[in-house]
Amino acid sequence: MDLRQLRYFVATAEELHFGRAAERVHIAQPALSIQIKALEDMLGVQLLSRTNRVVTLTEAGRLFLKEARRTLEQAQHAAVVARRAGRGEIGRIEIGYSADTSYSGVLSGVLRQYKRRVPDVELGLHELHPSTQIAQLLEGRIHIGFIANFVDSPTGKLPPELDAIRLAEWPLRVALPADHPLAKRSRIPREALADEPFIVYVGSDIEQDRSLIQMVIGFMPRVAYEVRSGFSIVSLVGAGLGVAIVPSSVSSVSIGEHVVYRPISGNTTQVGTDVVFRRDADDPAVVNFLEIVQPDQHDTKGKRHRGT
């Protein structure tokens, strides 16, 4: 049984006339009769009762007609689904993001724009440390990563399998308890932080996380607490448990006005927000996502940037 035979049968069952049915499906009447007979032989049951002038449905034919219509409708729906998936209009994209990208508004802005244009693609969202995102991109567990990284980091080369599109860059700030003596200053010298307890954001590579902070402040921080979310960093700073180095995008988090953010004297290091993806990404939904992120680029892979 194939879909063509089902279409022939449905046309004949609805017309109850072989000549009109043959015209409707654009084949010769003898060929239509042969296909209907082949269908009946395969099923082992008579579907149509034929006389010289009258064609009627048998009881088996009446019931088969209902199922044949459903099958053809489902087949048509399946074809529509396949075409839409091929255009990237439906499917699912797994997206990783670091906390800094959510605070900055970059993540929400891109996702809002994408969902307005492609509302039927499901988005799986996962808050992950940048190094974890890199690992999961390489493993194929996520398709897209929104990663905040130190722009000038000497260890920030992406693996060759990955590429990135730069979305924004943010200067770094010191997050201080509002009642901290240094909070009265408009700019914080790096040496003034030498004896401060630090709250640091850690992922799968703790040594790398600390070395990046060392690059910014010029010395290895005295770590008081290690946390795994940006919100936790600000919460602990607000509790007076230490200071932290954060991008200026986090300054929107006030924790009841218990935290202030100050620039660091002599620091030019910035945090960039990148969309990171596999160079060989060919899922149409992912390709569409990258085109929306960078609509003015003919090459959806964008310009290569440093990763985390």
From TrEMBL:
Q: Is this entry keyworded Lyase?
A: no
Q: What organism does this protein naturally occur in?
A: Microvirga ossetica
In this chain the HTH lysR-type domain maps to: 1-58
Similarity comment: family membership: Belongs to the LysR transcriptional regulatory family.
For this protein, the record's Pfam families field holds: HTH_1, LysR_substrate
CDD domains xrefs: PBP2_LTTR_aromatics_like (cd08414)
Recorded superkingdom:
Bacteria
- Keywords, sorted A to Z: DNA-binding, Transcription, Transcription regulation
From the Swiss-Prot or TrEMBL record, give the protein name.
Answer: HTH lysR-type domain-containing protein
Gene3D superfamilies from the xrefs?
Periplasmic binding protein-like II, Winged helix-like DNA-binding domain superfamily/Winged helix DNA-binding domain
For molecular function, the Gene Ontology terms on record are: DNA binding; DNA-binding transcription factor activity
> Organism classification, top ranks?
Bacteria, Pseudomonadati, Pseudomonadota, Alphaproteobacteria, Hyphomicrobiales
- Record-level GO cellular component terms: protein-DNA complex
